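Run log, item B.
One chain of 159 residues. Sequence copied directly from the ordering sheet:
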Amino acid sequence: MPTRTPAGASSAQAPPAPDGEGVPLHDRARRELALLRDRLHEEMALLRERVPEVNGSVACSVDGLPIASDLRGETEQIGALSSAVLALSGRLTTMADKGSFEETLISGSNGYAVFYAAGPTIVLTVLARPGTNLGLLRLEGRKTAARLAAITSRTSTTH
């Protein structure tokens, strides 16, 4: 039973409007998001095949919300930090008059983290082990980011 607000209006929400095909909008959006995740996972798996030293990757929105990941653990935190790295890197690239942002590579004692803009709405973060062929990683990472951008540009719902 709906509750009443102080003004006397009902707090019950109306069911979602159909999208013209008889499917409620939230159901359609949910299916599109699941399809997007599956397609992003496929591309991320191909990256692992092409660069075996890759530990995993995360595709998140530029706001830091994870969309697809093949990592265990702190995916939400990695997504949030990835969006911050992308924003800072893009800003510095612009301020230093270095053209369009392409990637940020962080080298640590236990491997690498590489961040790519995958179109205007997605950040791709790739983690790799020490000893990774960085030329191959950069080449394949850019290709994967371009594929993710193409996938998300064809999908109306990204998150």
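Observations after the first pass:
- Helices lie at 25-50, 75-95, 134-153.
- Confidence is low (pLDDT under 50) at residues 1-20.
Flagged for discussion on Thursday.
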